[in-house]
Amino acid sequence: MIQFRDATIQDLPAIVAIYNTTIAGRMVTADTEPVTVESRVHWFETHSPARPLWVVEDAAGNIAGWVSIKSFYGRPAYQATTEIAIYLDPSQRGKGLGRQILEETITKCRGIGISTLLGFIFAHNEPSLKLFKHAGFEQWGLFPDIAELDGIKRSLVILGKRI
């Protein structure tokens, strides 16, 4: 059983801690060094009811992960199109929680006027690609060798879904 709720500024240390666990693996984010809570305050403040930041709690009330919905391209014509990012606590990965979170996020996004979701995922991040494709996302774009992580060129896949 999971519970979504709007993130509060008090959740930011946990959000940042979860995010930072993904950096060393070089599969999830293009950040190469851990970020600080202070560096993420502005990012936190850009979220709103129309562009939410949700924390996901497990049955015991612990933060198991978080979901960020942010605007795509920032122009009015794209208002109903957003980018989704899902991050899980390491202890929660590989348990099917990502699938539950993605399904619930799709439902919640329909209720706030979003009609298209985009996921920007490294091509070598097979678990995330599999998760999104299982939820009906399709590849809509590919940026070959757009990033360099530890001297290795990495491609970025854009997955999309009309909801």
What features would you describe in this structure?
The protein has 163 residues and is of the alpha+beta class. 23% of the residues lie in helices and 34% in strands. It has helices spanning 12-20, 41-45, 97-110, 126-134, and strands spanning 3-6, 53-57, 63-71, 81-88, 116-122, 138-149, 152-162. A seven-stranded mixed sheet has the order 1-2-3-4-5-7-6, sandwiched between helices. The protein is globular and about 40 Å long. The chain starts with a strand and ends with a strand. The mean pLDDT is 97.
Order of helices and strands: EHHEEEHEHEE
Strand order of the largest sheet: 1-2-3-4-5-7-6
Helix and strand content put the structural class at alpha+beta
Task: Count up the helices.
Answer: 4
What percent of the residues sit in helical stretches (DSSP H or I)?
A: 10-25%
Return the average pLDDT rounded to an integer.
97
Number of strands: 7
Question: Main β-sheet: number of strands, strand sense, barrel status?
Answer: 7 strands, mixed
The dominant shape is globular
The percent range for strand residues is: 25-35%
Query: What is the gyration radius calculated from CA atoms?
Result: 15 Å
Low-confidence stretches: none
- Compute the separation of the termini in Å: 24 Å
Q: What is the chains' assembly state?
A: single chain
Short description:
This protein has 163 residues and is α+β, with helices and mostly antiparallel strands.
